[in-house]
Amino acid sequence: MAIAKAERLMNLALCLLGTRRPLSKRELRESIEAYLEAGSDDSFNRMFERDKDDLRELGLVIETVENLDGEIGYLARRDSNRLPPVTLDAEEAAALGLAAKVWQQARLAGAASGALQKLRAAGLPEDFDPYETHGALEPRIPVHEAAFEPLMLACRDRRPVVFDYRKATAARPEPRHVEPWALECWRGHWYLAGWDRDRNAERVFRLSRITGKVRSRGARYTAPVPDVVTVRETVASWAGETADRSALIRLRSEAGYPLRAKAVSVRELGDGWDELEIPYGHGLDAWLVEFGPDVVVLEPAELRADVLDRLRAVAKG
Q1: Which of 149, 161, 201, 299 is most buried, by the most CB atoms less than 10 A from its CB?
Q2: 3-state SS string over the chain?
């Protein structure tokens, strides 16, 4: 049904844009197959009025003209529906080209490539290659989780989802009913921020802990969607980026470089170990578990207990 309507709208838009004079309803009905198949005049009139309103909502300027005989006609003049030229300076084009380079994943690579072609037509220098390496760092965002694509589409279409989620401290996954807001990447991991219907509160889910398929639901959202800045702050807090105190850990020498980059201070202990003071916020326990036997939490006691609980849960499978 959606494809049929899209095709009908496209045909109507082409008819209105391609004519040099206003076309009556009768002429439009004879020109578009879907209108010919309408069962009655009333059915056609309702369909046409809906399509005309939809095209206007999409931005097409449709004029209504009455001829000398009192007959109403419709047309969309090209000069009224022509977009202004897109101009980019070298810095803007380079920034957009770099953004396209980031998305080199299976689903988005084609869209990024097509966007680059349009950028070149809009002023991207021909000698600028966004896929060429310009330095030691590669600006890529890896997406390995199967849940990424269905969640991305659900966020775009504002559709609630259901999936099984395994907390780091739980041995088995549990079903979650979520109204997805946005996907964010922190420290190389993808997170979903949204409204958890079962807990009646906002939650953040790490995609790597989603098991099985993500299933969409047709119901409407029950909670308001915050702006993108608030969502990012929420993800940052849950991912451990917002710290209000410090933790003391032992770290094996020549290991844990991301932890060293965050450290407030580092002291050599000898015997292949260092002592680090690092910012402590929500989610730090989950991050420390990833370093396995290379990390030992010294204080605070609550962080040490959380890390041990997560390790025991992993050991239980």
Answers
A1: 161
A2: CHHHHHHHHHHHHHHHHHCCCCECHHHHHHHCHHHHCCCCHHHHHHHHHHHHHHHHHCCCCCEEEECCCCCEEEECCCCCCCCCCCCCCHHHHHHHHHHHHHCCCHHHHHHHHHHHHHHHHCCCCCCCCCCCCCCCCCCCCCCCCCCHHHHHHHHHHCCCEEEEECCCCCCCCEEEEEEEEEEEEECCEEEEEEEECCCCEEEEEEHHHEEEEEEECCCCCCCCCCCHHHHHHHHHHHCCCCEEEEEEEEEECCCCHHHHHHCCEEEEEECCEEEEEEEEECCHHHHHHCCHHHEEEEECHHHHHHHHHHHHHHHHC
